Amino acid sequence: IFTNARAVKAFLDQEHIQTLPWLAFSPNTCPTEHAWEMLGRHLHQG
Known about the structure:
Elements: H1 2-14, H2 31-45
Organism: Astatotilapia calliptera (Eastern happy)
Protein name: Tc1-like transposase DDE domain-containing protein
GO molecular function: nucleic acid binding
């Protein structure tokens, strides 16, 4: 797994693609959950 992660990081660095600085196992880093939460708030505001 770490070899794949290193290969992906090397590719992203080579292509000058920035990534978000977050911990791999943090429960608050799921972008899908945040997107659904934002969508729900937007819909409830009317």
